[in-house]
Amino acid sequence: MRKPKTFGEWCLLAGGILTFIVLLFALIGDLIAPGNTTSSYIMIDGKTVEVPPLLPPLSRLDIYGRTVTFYLGTDQLGRDVFSRLLAGARFVLAVAFLSTVVSTVIGVFLGLISGYVGGLFDRTLSLVMDSLYSLPGLIVAIALAAFLGTGLVNMSLAIAVAYIPSYFRMVRGNVLSLKGMPFVEASKIAGASPLSIALRQILPNTFPSIASLLPITFADAIITEAGLSFLGLGIEPPTPDWGFDLNKGRQFFLAGYWWIGIFPGLAIVITVLGFLLLGEGLNEVLNPKRWEA
Amino acid sequence: MSHATMHEILRVENLKVYFPLKRTIEDIVARRQRFLKAVDNVSFNMPEGAIMALVGESGSGKTTIARTVVGLVEPTDGHVYFRGRDIFSLKGEEFKVYRRKVQMIFQDPAVSLNPRMKIGDQVKYPLDVNKIGTREERVEKTMKVLKDVGLSPPEDFYNRYPHQLSGGQKQRVAIARALVLEPELLIADEPISNIDVSARAQILNLLQQLRDRLHLSILYITHDLSSAWAISDQVAVMYLGKIVEMAPTSEIFSNPLHPYTQALISAVPSLNGFPLARKTKLRGEIPSPVNPPSGCRLHPRCPFAMPACREKEPEIITLGRDHIVACHLYSKS
Amino acid sequence: MTLLEIRNLKVSYNTRRGKVEALSGVSLDVEQGEVLGVVGESGSGKSTLGLAIMRLLPRYSQIEQGKIFFDGRDILKLDDEALREMRGKEISIVFQDPYSSLNPVRKIVDHFIELFAEHGYAYEKEEIEKIASQLLEKMGVPPEKLHDYPHQLSGGQRQRVAIALGLALNPKLLIADEITTALDALVEAQIVELLKEIKKEYMTSIMFITHNMGLVAQLADRIAIMYAGKLVEVGKTREVIEKPLHPYTKALLSAVPRIGGSKALQPIPGEPPDMRKPPSGCRFHPRCPLATDLCVREIPVLRNIGDRYVACHYA
């Protein structure tokens, strides 16, 4: 791999590293930080030990001959902030992943059909999508979350709806310009059915734009999820979650207990930044603006 | 002109293709619909195994005729007969069968191929779509047709992507894709205009070979008279939706009758600096096909225009063997 | 008198997939009042040559080495302001696309007004209109079109306006880069006639870049054939066409159908070279019927054979 030459390539590198780290921590979280994420006590040698709340970072507890370190301190219920952070990563990323997948699949599918079929169907669906697109994502998600309820799946669906229009518009735009290309006409002349043309000829040509939108949607979904849980929607305590903890931490911040809210907040920022950089870099690589003379 | 022969592959009769124009306020008030008369009463026939050139500049209607014959556009009036059968009266399965017999290659090879599909898969695609043969047979056929167009070794080219090929190679892939269904008629719409000069001869030679080896009939659409001269047996010259002259190739170049044909031939930049036909020059430029001139459409530009030319459309006159021309200069009076 | 002297010009482009050398040491002269035809296919570097002379090369390119002297001045050393003065006034260029040479939201007359203003001419609007009007008429465009927008003109008319703008300040050199490629056959012939008249009346030197041998045969006094970034043959038009010395020139002439000539077309075997890794030695050797080991090893130098310049070991 060579040294990055352009802004986009630096973004790709930086974004790749950041997202890799985040994903890694999410995956191995349980192994490196098996602390108490949801309960206020820990088990040492079969004995239940109450964990003191509001311990600052790098606090240590010497009990029964063992030393337990709370690297990032404990929150207001005595839960290990570090473990909760990593567990939260798993939850947040899972929600973001599920919502991205759902919105992509539905948005692409509808955009493909709408763009290819055209006519009244297309105009109606575009109208619906444009209206949805004009609403801020968070508002849409809030409305749906209130309607659907709590839990990982419900939250993901609520968020997914907000991003369907983006994929719809993009794929539909692609399809409209591809529809008139000679290679599509050649397929018609060969006798291909509209379904075959849409799936085998047109759809693969939308992949680069879809791929460059994916990381951005993912990052956006993380923020929306954080927003929802910050507001207390969609999340069932005591599920570890960055947005929720950020909100709780906010209340304790002024009292001097900064670690409860800062770390989830930083986690959100770093993760979102990572995915956005990745998206920026991917966009440049997949949709090159430089051409050969 | 035509008497249907057993060996006639294509016959176009009084073909009209009019495209409705977007209505302006004036149109709505006057309650009228204006049309772009892309093809306006065109008739010709094409013998089997021949290469026929349709020559014209922009707005002549030649591409519209191509797209109509291949079924992408429906005529407003008139008929297209393929081996005696009216193709626009065919329905469903029958039309699908017709489709396989007539294929087309396009002008710009860069957009004629799917950029995200392997060459081999693209060429094989028509076979997949028509469910011809087993999977192995389709691959075998694809390999064979790639070899036939000169893309050897075919295994190598099968797995490449369009951006890895030169313009000439891409066009040969497009030809291979058109051939894989074993068509009887190939419509070639300006196949060499977007290709490097040195590669054009390859494509022209290939088309002739295909005609010789496969008894393929080719309708060759072009604005380039030199290539029409080189490969075609018969030439029809079009202007603003009408055929103005049609004759066997040698005849039309040695004895061009219509002023437009003469102008086209004398405009060909020859290597020795001398014009190739009686130097006929037309005034001005091609008018918009939306509002064609009255009578003979060339009259505002024609150095030989007479009063009749503005008033009446010239009839189609046959002179000699198979030489037709639509010009008042040659009418009986 | 030699108007333009290009010596050993090397231009490369930085592309994602590597560095591409578009011009590999081109040396060429253009005399005052002559029409030089530059003939080549895609990848030959002919358009790069025109852009380099105008100093209009894109950002992702560089002039690696070489000199360009125009009217005695080294134009590779000019600063931005001097370049802006030079463009349009001493050297003009007209491009292939008649749709993008003109600003679609400005009337034709405004193009002229801007041109004069940018070069510091303090003419009144009426004066400019008069000059423009006369110029348009000379170019065969009805002067009323001055007050139209570009989309109201035909492709041929747009090209004529572009040529008029190019000639308005009476430049010594006009570079015409494939100016008729996008035009219909009859319009193309009209433009060629127009250029012949311009040459006679204004005595402007014209560098006519094209892939069409027939066009240069009509217009050019001398032609320069380019292949893969190098000059392969330069000479008087008539002589080169009747007696081509370089195998590529010969092949090019046999590959193009000519009405009245042989119907047996000889395509040039092989494919155009990949300019990221051009062939060693003589770049034409993979496709040349005369190629030998020498051709693979050694780059042929552009040699003088009488009036002709040829870059071939066996010419």
TrEMBL record, chain A:
It is found in: Cell membrane. One of its GO terms (biological process) is transmembrane transport. One of its GO terms (cellular component) is plasma membrane. Its main location: membrane. PROSITE patterns: ABC_TM1. This is ABC transporter permease. Belongs to the binding-protein-dependent transport system permease family. InterPro entries: BP-dependent_transpt_permease, MetI-like, MetI-like_sf. It comes from Thermofilum adornatum. The lineage of its organism: Archaea, Thermoproteota, Thermoprotei, Thermofilales, Thermofilaceae. The chain crosses the membrane at residues 12-33, 91-117, 137-164, 255-279. Residues 89-279 form the ABC transmembrane type-1 domain. CDD domains: TM_PBP2 (cd06261). It holds the Pfam family BPD_transp_1.
From TrEMBL, chain C:
GO terms for biological process: peptide transport. It is found in: Cell membrane. Residues 6-253 form the ABC transporter domain. Keywords: ATP-binding, Cell inner membrane, Cell membrane, Membrane, Nucleotide-binding, Translocase, Transport. SUPFAM superfamilies: P-loop containing nucleoside triphosphate hydrolases. It is a peripheral membrane protein. CDD domains: ABC_NikE_OppD_transporters. One of its GO terms (cellular component) is plasma membrane. InterPro entries: AAA+_ATPase, ABC_Ni/Peptide_Import, ABC_transporter-like_ATP-bd, ABC_transporter-like_CS, Oligopep_ABC_C, P-loop_NTPase. Its main location: membrane. It comes from the Archaea. GO terms for molecular function: ATP binding; ATP hydrolysis activity. Pfam families: ABC_tran (PF00005), oligo_HPY (PF08352). NCBIfam families: oligo_HPY. This is ABC transporter ATP-binding protein. It comes from Thermofilum adornatum.
